[in-house]
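Data card: per-record layout.
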Amino acid sequence: MMRYICFLLLPLVLLTSGCTKKDDPKQEEPGKVIVLMYHRIVEGEATNLYERSLEDLESDLKYLKNNNIKIISFTDLEEFSKKQSIGEGNYAIITFDDGDSSWYTLVRQLLINYQAKATFFLWTYKIGSDSFMRWDEVENMSHYQSKGGIRPFTFGSHSYSHTYLYDSRNKYETLDEYREFLDYELGVSREIIEQYTPGEVNVFSLPFGNGAGDPEIIAAAQRNGYKFIRTSLWSAIDNTNLDLMVIPSLPMLDSTEPDLIGYYLGF
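The structure for this 267-residue chain is written out next.
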């Protein structure tokens, strides 16, 4: 009789334990970081591959906001690298190459409106000429502070003369001469920018993306005080490629759709 009662009670016990057991917590997908690369911003329609309209730039910012993609800085990326983990959520770093005057006349106020951080890479030889920014504009922009004393606009180097760093190796007879060339391109540009901006310049963007991952270029960057090299390799950053000297990016060109950001983040 007792054996029969136990047999009847067993399914009830199993059913009760199944109902009271806590569900396993949902495993969140590891986060990713996308580095967006812009050049010149224009009012009206873009007229060449490397231009993007102000309207499209605003659409990009709205896309980031609507999809809970947090805008961060390279310093934040460094913290991820130290932990070797991005954690949960998706992030974007906004960058601009060359030094076009549109950064001051168009981009600056739009980023302020969206409370967005950005890093601007300067072709230092050209600043103050043609359609490029002036140094007083660089100084003004870099010293701007939002609420809480935060400086959202960081300036980095895009080299002194915007030449092909890796391909220039064949122009020099010795390795020492080539290294002197690299030190000039990376070192002098950094020194000039630091005359007009607060803090240290520690972010470098490869001209034409030439030389991504090259040991000599990386060594030159480190010799000259850089912590980061942004490349033109198309990719997002995840926990498997947190190399601060080979940072991939996504070029935002004249016809790039904002949805491409989500594609690279795995949406």
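Known properties of this structure: The longest strand covers residues 90-98. The chain has a mean pLDDT of 91.

See the next section for split statistics.
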